[in-house]
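Researcher: Structure prediction, please.
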Amino acid sequence: MSVALSVKIHLMKYTASLLFFLFVTSYGFAQPRASYKMISGDNYAASKNCYLLTLFEEIPALNHFLKEDSILTMIGRDKKAQLLAAIKNCGNTVSCYTDAAKFTPAEIKEVGGRLVALYQPENELGELVKDQLIPSGCYYLYAAMDHKQLLLKAWEQDARCVNHMIDVYAAGKKPNYAKIDSISFNVLDRGYPELLAMNASLSVNTHNGNSFYASLLSFALTSLDINERYQAADYEPLNETENKSALAYAKKVDWDNFKYTLILVPGEGPEEAGVALSAGGMLRCRLAVLQYKNGLAPFIMVSGGCVHPFKTKYNEAIEMKKYLMQTLHIPEKVILIEPHARHTTTNLRNCARIIFTNGFPMDKPCITSTAKSQSYYITSIMPSRCEQELGYLPYKNGKRLSDHEAEFYPLAAALQIDFDEPMDP
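Model: Predicted structure follows.
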Protein backbone atom coordinates (compact mmCIF):
# COMPACT_ATOMS: atom_id res chain seq x y z
CA MET A 1 0.00 0.00 0.00
CA SER A 2 1.37 3.42 -0.92
CA VAL A 3 1.92 6.02 1.77
CA ALA A 4 -0.64 8.29 0.11
CA LEU A 5 -3.28 5.54 0.04
CA SER A 6 -2.58 4.57 3.64
CA VAL A 7 -2.95 8.19 4.77
CA LYS A 8 -6.16 8.52 2.76
CA ILE A 9 -7.68 5.41 4.37
CA HIS A 10 -6.76 6.52 7.88
CA LEU A 11 -8.14 10.01 7.16
CA MET A 12 -11.42 8.45 6.02
CA LYS A 13 -11.61 6.47 9.25
CA TYR A 14 -10.80 9.52 11.37
CA THR A 15 -13.40 11.67 9.58
CA ALA A 16 -16.07 9.00 10.05
CA SER A 17 -15.17 8.77 13.72
CA LEU A 18 -15.37 12.54 14.20
CA LEU A 19 -18.75 12.84 12.47
CA PHE A 20 -20.01 9.90 14.49
CA PHE A 21 -18.89 11.52 17.76
CA LEU A 22 -20.44 14.89 16.92
CA PHE A 23 -23.76 13.29 16.07
CA VAL A 24 -24.16 10.90 18.96
CA THR A 25 -23.18 13.44 21.59
CA SER A 26 -26.20 15.47 20.47
CA TYR A 27 -28.82 12.91 19.47
CA GLY A 28 -27.97 9.37 20.53
CA PHE A 29 -28.52 6.30 18.33
CA ALA A 30 -29.62 2.68 18.30
CA GLN A 31 -27.17 0.51 20.20
CA PRO A 32 -25.94 -2.99 19.28
CA ARG A 33 -27.30 -5.91 21.30
CA ALA A 34 -25.18 -8.30 23.33
CA SER A 35 -27.74 -11.01 22.60
CA TYR A 36 -27.30 -10.66 18.83
CA LYS A 37 -25.95 -13.81 17.17
CA MET A 38 -23.72 -13.33 14.15
CA ILE A 39 -24.65 -15.19 10.97
CA SER A 40 -21.45 -16.75 9.68
CA GLY A 41 -22.48 -19.47 7.26
CA ASP A 42 -19.50 -21.74 6.72
CA ASN A 43 -16.88 -19.03 6.23
CA TYR A 44 -15.72 -16.99 9.21
CA ALA A 45 -13.11 -15.12 7.18
CA ALA A 46 -15.91 -13.84 4.95
CA SER A 47 -18.38 -12.99 7.69
CA LYS A 48 -15.85 -11.20 9.89
CA ASN A 49 -14.55 -9.10 7.01
CA CYS A 50 -17.65 -8.51 4.87
CA TYR A 51 -20.66 -9.00 7.08
CA LEU A 52 -23.15 -7.27 4.80
CA LEU A 53 -22.18 -9.51 1.86
CA THR A 54 -22.44 -12.55 4.16
CA LEU A 55 -25.97 -11.51 5.10
CA PHE A 56 -26.82 -11.04 1.42
CA GLU A 57 -25.72 -14.64 0.91
CA GLU A 58 -27.04 -16.33 4.05
CA ILE A 59 -30.53 -14.86 4.51
CA PRO A 60 -32.67 -16.72 1.93
CA ALA A 61 -35.44 -14.12 1.51
CA LEU A 62 -32.90 -11.31 1.16
CA ASN A 63 -30.81 -13.30 -1.30
CA HIS A 64 -33.90 -13.95 -3.43
CA PHE A 65 -34.94 -10.29 -3.22
CA LEU A 66 -31.58 -9.12 -4.56
CA LYS A 67 -31.47 -11.75 -7.31
CA GLU A 68 -34.87 -10.59 -8.51
CA ASP A 69 -33.55 -7.10 -9.23
CA SER A 70 -32.57 -6.83 -12.89
CA ILE A 71 -30.07 -4.01 -12.37
CA LEU A 72 -28.08 -5.77 -9.67
CA THR A 73 -28.21 -9.01 -11.66
CA MET A 74 -26.85 -7.21 -14.73
CA ILE A 75 -23.96 -5.79 -12.69
CA GLY A 76 -23.15 -9.31 -11.54
CA ARG A 77 -23.20 -10.61 -15.10
CA ASP A 78 -20.96 -7.77 -16.24
CA LYS A 79 -18.42 -8.54 -13.52
CA LYS A 80 -18.47 -12.21 -14.43
CA ALA A 81 -17.93 -11.29 -18.08
CA GLN A 82 -14.97 -9.09 -17.11
CA LEU A 83 -13.34 -11.99 -15.29
CA LEU A 84 -13.95 -14.33 -18.23
CA ALA A 85 -12.39 -11.77 -20.56
CA ALA A 86 -9.42 -11.48 -18.19
CA ILE A 87 -8.87 -15.25 -18.32
CA LYS A 88 -8.87 -15.09 -22.10
CA ASN A 89 -6.89 -11.91 -22.69
CA CYS A 90 -4.70 -10.93 -19.71
CA GLY A 91 -1.81 -13.27 -20.37
CA ASN A 92 1.04 -12.42 -18.00
CA THR A 93 -0.27 -9.03 -16.87
CA VAL A 94 -1.04 -9.23 -13.15
CA SER A 95 -2.93 -5.93 -12.96
CA CYS A 96 -5.23 -7.04 -15.77
CA TYR A 97 -6.58 -9.87 -13.62
CA THR A 98 -6.75 -7.92 -10.37
CA ASP A 99 -8.46 -4.90 -11.94
CA ALA A 100 -11.13 -7.18 -13.41
CA ALA A 101 -11.66 -8.79 -9.98
CA LYS A 102 -12.26 -5.52 -8.11
CA PHE A 103 -15.22 -3.17 -7.88
CA THR A 104 -14.61 0.07 -9.75
CA PRO A 105 -15.65 3.36 -8.12
CA ALA A 106 -18.47 3.63 -10.68
CA GLU A 107 -19.71 0.13 -9.84
CA ILE A 108 -19.61 0.84 -6.11
CA LYS A 109 -21.66 3.98 -6.70
CA GLU A 110 -24.12 2.18 -8.98
CA VAL A 111 -24.73 -0.68 -6.54
CA GLY A 112 -25.03 1.74 -3.64
CA GLY A 113 -27.55 3.84 -5.50
CA ARG A 114 -29.59 0.78 -6.37
CA LEU A 115 -29.63 -0.52 -2.80
CA VAL A 116 -30.81 2.87 -1.57
CA ALA A 117 -33.51 2.97 -4.26
CA LEU A 118 -34.73 -0.52 -3.33
CA TYR A 119 -34.74 0.16 0.43
CA GLN A 120 -38.10 0.38 2.19
CA PRO A 121 -38.47 0.23 5.98
CA GLU A 122 -40.65 -2.89 5.82
CA ASN A 123 -39.02 -4.80 2.97
CA GLU A 124 -36.06 -7.19 3.09
CA LEU A 125 -33.48 -4.38 3.10
CA GLY A 126 -35.34 -2.51 5.82
CA GLU A 127 -35.42 -5.66 7.96
CA LEU A 128 -31.72 -6.20 7.22
CA VAL A 129 -30.75 -2.84 8.67
CA LYS A 130 -33.08 -3.04 11.65
CA ASP A 131 -32.62 -6.68 12.59
CA GLN A 132 -29.00 -7.32 11.53
CA LEU A 133 -26.76 -4.35 10.78
CA ILE A 134 -27.63 -2.22 13.79
CA PRO A 135 -27.76 -4.93 16.49
CA SER A 136 -24.56 -6.56 15.19
CA GLY A 137 -22.51 -3.40 15.73
CA CYS A 138 -20.37 -4.32 12.71
CA TYR A 139 -21.08 -0.90 11.19
CA TYR A 140 -21.16 0.99 14.46
CA LEU A 141 -19.61 4.16 13.06
CA TYR A 142 -22.68 4.65 10.86
CA ALA A 143 -25.32 3.78 13.46
CA ALA A 144 -26.27 7.43 13.93
CA MET A 145 -27.22 7.79 10.26
CA ASP A 146 -30.67 7.18 8.82
CA HIS A 147 -31.16 3.59 7.71
CA LYS A 148 -30.68 4.20 4.01
CA GLN A 149 -27.35 5.87 4.62
CA LEU A 150 -26.29 3.15 7.02
CA LEU A 151 -27.02 0.54 4.34
CA LEU A 152 -25.07 2.58 1.78
CA LYS A 153 -22.06 2.99 4.08
CA ALA A 154 -22.07 -0.72 4.97
CA TRP A 155 -22.03 -1.60 1.26
CA GLU A 156 -19.22 0.85 0.52
CA GLN A 157 -17.19 -0.54 3.41
CA ASP A 158 -17.60 -4.14 2.23
CA ALA A 159 -16.72 -3.20 -1.35
CA ARG A 160 -13.52 -1.51 -0.12
CA CYS A 161 -12.81 -4.62 1.95
CA VAL A 162 -13.01 -6.88 -1.12
CA ASN A 163 -10.81 -4.50 -3.11
CA HIS A 164 -8.26 -4.28 -0.30
CA MET A 165 -7.89 -8.05 -0.05
CA ILE A 166 -7.28 -8.23 -3.79
CA ASP A 167 -4.87 -5.28 -3.78
CA VAL A 168 -2.71 -6.85 -1.09
CA TYR A 169 -3.03 -10.60 -1.58
CA ALA A 170 -3.36 -10.75 -5.36
CA ALA A 171 -1.77 -7.54 -6.70
CA GLY A 172 0.98 -7.46 -4.07
CA LYS A 173 0.49 -3.94 -2.75
CA LYS A 174 1.88 -3.24 0.70
CA PRO A 175 -0.55 -3.78 3.61
CA ASN A 176 -0.67 -1.54 6.66
CA TYR A 177 2.02 -3.66 8.34
CA ALA A 178 4.22 -4.96 5.55
CA LYS A 179 6.71 -6.78 7.79
CA ILE A 180 4.15 -9.29 9.03
CA ASP A 181 1.19 -9.13 6.64
CA SER A 182 2.57 -8.99 3.08
CA ILE A 183 1.77 -11.28 0.16
CA SER A 184 3.54 -14.65 0.08
CA PHE A 185 4.28 -14.62 -3.66
CA ASN A 186 6.62 -12.78 -5.97
CA VAL A 187 4.16 -11.13 -8.33
CA LEU A 188 6.98 -10.71 -10.88
CA ASP A 189 7.46 -14.46 -11.13
CA ARG A 190 6.52 -15.71 -14.59
CA GLY A 191 4.24 -18.41 -13.19
CA TYR A 192 2.26 -16.10 -10.91
CA PRO A 193 -0.31 -14.85 -13.49
CA GLU A 194 -1.37 -18.44 -14.03
CA LEU A 195 -2.43 -18.63 -10.37
CA LEU A 196 -4.55 -15.50 -10.88
CA ALA A 197 -6.12 -17.01 -14.00
CA MET A 198 -7.06 -20.15 -12.06
CA ASN A 199 -8.48 -18.03 -9.24
CA ALA A 200 -10.57 -16.07 -11.75
CA SER A 201 -11.81 -19.30 -13.34
CA LEU A 202 -12.89 -20.66 -9.98
CA SER A 203 -14.53 -17.36 -9.04
CA VAL A 204 -16.81 -17.18 -12.07
CA ASN A 205 -18.06 -20.66 -11.24
CA THR A 206 -19.19 -19.96 -7.67
CA HIS A 207 -22.59 -21.39 -6.82
CA ASN A 208 -24.05 -17.90 -6.66
CA GLY A 209 -21.95 -16.49 -9.48
CA ASN A 210 -24.61 -14.24 -10.98
CA SER A 211 -25.04 -12.14 -7.84
CA PHE A 212 -23.37 -8.75 -8.10
CA TYR A 213 -20.78 -9.58 -5.43
CA ALA A 214 -20.15 -13.34 -5.52
CA SER A 215 -17.39 -13.65 -8.12
CA LEU A 216 -15.36 -10.80 -6.67
CA LEU A 217 -15.77 -11.91 -3.07
CA SER A 218 -14.72 -15.42 -4.10
CA PHE A 219 -11.61 -14.07 -5.84
CA ALA A 220 -10.69 -12.03 -2.75
CA LEU A 221 -11.20 -14.89 -0.29
CA THR A 222 -9.31 -17.37 -2.47
CA SER A 223 -6.45 -14.87 -2.59
CA LEU A 224 -6.38 -14.94 1.21
CA ASP A 225 -6.50 -18.72 1.19
CA ILE A 226 -3.59 -19.36 -1.16
CA ASN A 227 -1.51 -16.87 0.85
CA GLU A 228 -2.33 -18.84 4.02
CA ARG A 229 -3.93 -15.68 5.39
CA TYR A 230 -7.22 -17.14 6.65
CA GLN A 231 -6.33 -16.43 10.29
CA ALA A 232 -9.58 -14.55 10.91
CA ALA A 233 -11.25 -17.97 10.95
CA ASP A 234 -8.79 -19.61 13.35
CA TYR A 235 -10.41 -21.42 16.30
CA GLU A 236 -13.88 -20.22 15.33
CA PRO A 237 -16.44 -20.51 16.73
CA LEU A 238 -14.46 -19.58 19.85
CA ASN A 239 -17.44 -20.06 22.14
CA GLU A 240 -17.58 -23.72 21.12
CA THR A 241 -13.83 -24.37 21.02
CA GLU A 242 -11.10 -22.74 23.11
CA ASN A 243 -13.45 -20.56 25.21
CA LYS A 244 -16.17 -23.14 25.82
CA SER A 245 -15.02 -24.06 29.32
CA ALA A 246 -14.53 -20.46 30.48
CA LEU A 247 -17.89 -19.30 29.13
CA ALA A 248 -19.66 -22.16 30.89
CA TYR A 249 -17.96 -21.09 34.12
CA ALA A 250 -18.89 -17.44 33.48
CA LYS A 251 -22.58 -18.32 33.89
CA LYS A 252 -21.84 -19.13 37.53
CA VAL A 253 -19.72 -16.05 38.28
CA ASP A 254 -21.08 -13.46 40.67
CA TRP A 255 -19.54 -10.34 39.16
CA ASP A 256 -20.20 -8.36 42.33
CA ASN A 257 -17.50 -10.42 44.05
CA PHE A 258 -14.79 -9.05 41.78
CA LYS A 259 -13.44 -5.57 41.23
CA TYR A 260 -12.47 -6.32 37.62
CA THR A 261 -14.01 -8.35 34.81
CA LEU A 262 -10.75 -9.87 33.63
CA ILE A 263 -6.99 -9.47 33.39
CA LEU A 264 -5.86 -8.99 29.78
CA VAL A 265 -2.42 -10.25 28.74
CA PRO A 266 -1.34 -8.85 25.34
CA GLY A 267 0.91 -11.27 23.50
CA GLU A 268 4.51 -10.74 22.54
CA GLY A 269 5.54 -12.88 19.59
CA PRO A 270 9.07 -14.28 19.38
CA GLU A 271 11.18 -13.04 16.49
CA GLU A 272 13.03 -16.36 16.08
CA ALA A 273 11.55 -19.01 13.81
CA GLY A 274 10.53 -22.18 15.62
CA VAL A 275 10.10 -20.52 19.03
CA ALA A 276 6.58 -21.05 20.35
CA LEU A 277 6.45 -18.48 23.18
CA SER A 278 8.73 -15.57 23.94
CA ALA A 279 10.25 -14.83 27.33
CA GLY A 280 8.15 -11.66 27.38
CA GLY A 281 4.99 -13.70 26.88
CA MET A 282 5.92 -15.97 29.77
CA LEU A 283 6.62 -13.07 32.12
CA ARG A 284 3.38 -11.30 31.19
CA CYS A 285 1.49 -14.48 32.06
CA ARG A 286 3.23 -14.60 35.42
CA LEU A 287 2.30 -10.98 36.14
CA ALA A 288 -1.35 -11.75 35.36
CA VAL A 289 -1.35 -14.80 37.61
CA LEU A 290 -0.22 -12.66 40.56
CA GLN A 291 -3.27 -10.44 40.12
CA TYR A 292 -5.59 -13.40 39.51
CA LYS A 293 -4.43 -15.07 42.73
CA ASN A 294 -5.08 -11.79 44.56
CA GLY A 295 -8.73 -12.29 43.62
CA LEU A 296 -9.07 -9.16 41.50
CA ALA A 297 -10.83 -10.85 38.54
CA PRO A 298 -12.40 -14.21 37.72
CA PHE A 299 -10.65 -14.56 34.34
CA ILE A 300 -7.34 -14.14 32.59
CA MET A 301 -7.60 -13.35 28.88
CA VAL A 302 -4.56 -14.03 26.70
CA SER A 303 -4.56 -12.17 23.40
CA GLY A 304 -2.54 -12.45 20.20
CA GLY A 305 -2.58 -14.18 16.83
CA CYS A 306 -0.01 -15.80 14.53
CA VAL A 307 2.12 -12.71 14.06
CA HIS A 308 5.91 -12.90 14.57
CA PRO A 309 7.99 -13.93 12.76
CA PHE A 310 6.49 -13.66 9.26
CA LYS A 311 3.91 -16.43 8.72
CA THR A 312 4.68 -18.19 11.98
CA LYS A 313 2.56 -21.22 12.77
CA TYR A 314 2.54 -20.42 16.48
CA ASN A 315 -0.42 -18.56 17.93
CA GLU A 316 0.42 -16.23 20.82
CA ALA A 317 -2.85 -16.74 22.72
CA ILE A 318 -2.78 -20.52 22.35
CA GLU A 319 0.83 -20.74 23.50
CA MET A 320 0.17 -18.48 26.50
CA LYS A 321 -2.86 -20.57 27.43
CA LYS A 322 -0.69 -23.69 27.33
CA TYR A 323 1.89 -21.97 29.52
CA LEU A 324 -0.73 -20.85 32.04
CA MET A 325 -2.16 -24.35 32.30
CA GLN A 326 0.92 -26.55 32.02
CA THR A 327 3.55 -24.44 33.80
CA LEU A 328 1.60 -22.12 36.10
CA HIS A 329 -1.22 -24.61 36.81
CA ILE A 330 -4.10 -22.24 36.12
CA PRO A 331 -7.37 -24.09 35.38
CA GLU A 332 -8.73 -23.85 31.84
CA LYS A 333 -12.12 -22.62 33.02
CA VAL A 334 -10.67 -19.24 34.06
CA ILE A 335 -8.66 -18.69 30.84
CA LEU A 336 -10.22 -16.88 27.88
CA ILE A 337 -8.31 -16.63 24.64
CA GLU A 338 -8.46 -13.99 21.93
CA PRO A 339 -6.39 -15.60 19.12
CA HIS A 340 -6.62 -13.02 16.33
CA ALA A 341 -5.06 -9.70 17.41
CA ARG A 342 -2.00 -8.63 15.43
CA HIS A 343 -1.34 -5.31 17.19
CA THR A 344 -1.81 -3.77 20.61
CA THR A 345 -4.78 -1.79 19.29
CA THR A 346 -6.65 -4.97 18.54
CA ASN A 347 -5.60 -6.72 21.75
CA LEU A 348 -7.81 -4.16 23.49
CA ARG A 349 -10.46 -4.03 20.76
CA ASN A 350 -10.94 -7.78 20.51
CA CYS A 351 -11.06 -8.11 24.26
CA ALA A 352 -13.86 -5.54 24.36
CA ARG A 353 -15.73 -7.49 21.67
CA ILE A 354 -15.62 -10.71 23.66
CA ILE A 355 -16.78 -8.91 26.79
CA PHE A 356 -19.72 -7.31 24.99
CA THR A 357 -20.89 -10.29 22.94
CA ASN A 358 -20.84 -12.64 25.92
CA GLY A 359 -22.80 -10.34 28.18
CA PHE A 360 -19.97 -9.60 30.61
CA PRO A 361 -20.27 -6.29 32.51
CA MET A 362 -19.47 -3.29 30.31
CA ASP A 363 -19.47 -0.84 33.23
CA LYS A 364 -16.85 -2.75 35.22
CA PRO A 365 -13.16 -2.09 34.45
CA CYS A 366 -10.61 -4.65 33.28
CA ILE A 367 -6.85 -4.70 33.79
CA THR A 368 -4.02 -4.93 31.31
CA SER A 369 -1.06 -6.83 32.74
CA THR A 370 2.10 -6.46 30.70
CA ALA A 371 5.61 -5.05 30.43
CA LYS A 372 6.12 -1.52 31.76
CA SER A 373 6.86 -0.06 28.33
CA GLN A 374 3.70 -1.50 26.77
CA SER A 375 1.58 -0.64 29.80
CA TYR A 376 2.42 3.05 29.56
CA TYR A 377 2.08 2.89 25.79
CA ILE A 378 -1.49 1.60 26.19
CA THR A 379 -2.50 4.45 28.48
CA SER A 380 -0.68 7.30 26.72
CA ILE A 381 -0.09 6.61 23.01
CA MET A 382 -2.69 3.98 22.19
CA PRO A 383 -5.82 6.17 22.24
CA SER A 384 -4.50 8.39 19.45
CA ARG A 385 -3.23 5.36 17.54
CA CYS A 386 -6.68 3.76 17.76
CA GLU A 387 -8.30 6.93 16.43
CA GLN A 388 -5.86 6.98 13.53
CA GLU A 389 -5.80 3.28 12.62
CA LEU A 390 -9.25 2.08 13.65
CA GLY A 391 -11.21 5.31 13.40
CA TYR A 392 -12.62 5.01 16.92
CA LEU A 393 -11.75 4.20 20.54
CA PRO A 394 -12.53 0.60 21.57
CA TYR A 395 -11.81 1.34 25.23
CA LYS A 396 -11.29 4.18 27.68
CA ASN A 397 -8.54 4.41 30.25
CA GLY A 398 -9.14 3.99 33.95
CA LYS A 399 -6.66 4.32 36.81
CA ARG A 400 -3.04 3.24 36.70
CA LEU A 401 -2.40 0.57 39.31
CA SER A 402 1.34 -0.05 38.89
CA ASP A 403 4.05 0.04 36.25
CA HIS A 404 2.61 -3.20 34.88
CA GLU A 405 -1.15 -2.83 35.39
CA ALA A 406 -3.70 -0.23 34.34
CA GLU A 407 -7.48 -0.20 34.22
CA PHE A 408 -9.50 0.08 31.03
CA TYR A 409 -13.22 0.07 30.26
CA PRO A 410 -14.50 -1.72 27.12
CA LEU A 411 -16.61 0.27 24.66
CA ALA A 412 -19.23 -1.04 22.23
CA ALA A 413 -17.57 0.83 19.36
CA ALA A 414 -15.09 -2.08 19.34
CA LEU A 415 -17.64 -4.07 17.31
CA GLN A 416 -16.96 -1.93 14.22
CA ILE A 417 -15.27 -3.96 11.45
CA ASP A 418 -11.83 -2.76 10.36
CA PHE A 419 -12.10 -3.34 6.61
CA ASP A 420 -8.41 -3.08 5.71
CA GLU A 421 -7.10 -5.72 8.16
CA PRO A 422 -8.42 -8.98 6.64
CA MET A 423 -6.66 -11.31 9.11
CA ASP A 424 -8.11 -9.44 12.08
CA PRO A 425 -10.97 -7.23 10.93
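Model: The longest helix spans residues 3-27.
Researcher: Thanks, that helps.
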